[in-house]
Design goal:
Distance between the termini: 50 Å
Oligomer: single chain
Number of strands: 0
Strand content: under 5%
Length: about 260
Amino acid sequence: MNANIKISEPVQSFLAEIGELAYFTQRFFKEVFKRPYEFKEFLRQCYSMGNQSLLLVAVTGFIIGLVFTLQSRPTLQEFGAVSWMPSMVSISIIREIGPIITALICAGRIGSGIGAELGSMRVTEQIDAMEVSGTNPYKYLVVTRILATTFMIPILVFFADAIAIYGSFLVENTKGNVSFLLYFNQVFRNLEFSDLFPSTIKTFFFGFAIGLVGCFKGYNCKKGTAGVGIAANSAVVYTSMLLFIIDFIAVLVTDIFYN
């Protein structure tokens, strides 16, 4: 009986890429604690990612608040539960809708940008030149960007949540003549620690995933201009899949500890 198991080439390629990503992740945790610390580059990346994504995140959050409230209000009116609108919208946005939608938007905006930037540097041999000159390109290019996304995504999510809830208030103020003070009193009255803490913690993992996959695809970009486009595109696809997996795990863990 033949004991050899034949694995198809796509499966082999997928498993090999997972192994390379695991090694890439291990190297990050090894390099992040080593000197020198590229603090200026880290701040520059934080400013660049946050500033360039702020308007997109704000518009997305505002539309989420408007649409979610407009879609939910008729159903609550049928049951005479319109008064529950502020608490329902705020809890839904803060727990799930705000973090995952904002992370997906940032995956498309930031993740693809990182993949294209590092990919072009690899293709034009700028990374090779840094290695020859004695500079650690992984430390300067990869570690700073992963740290920047890890710390900036939670801030962007918090901003998007606030804008989304404000958009919901505008709908309620127009449709039901609800005052600003009454609306936000009901919002904060029904929010609990179990709503804020898990949703905040998972945004750090979202940011880490966005930076890690974007840097991995760009840093290991194949030669040729076509490789830059492939790196940017695959960074978004892989990151989106990883975000849903992380979100599913976060929901399971939250359900275990808080329910």
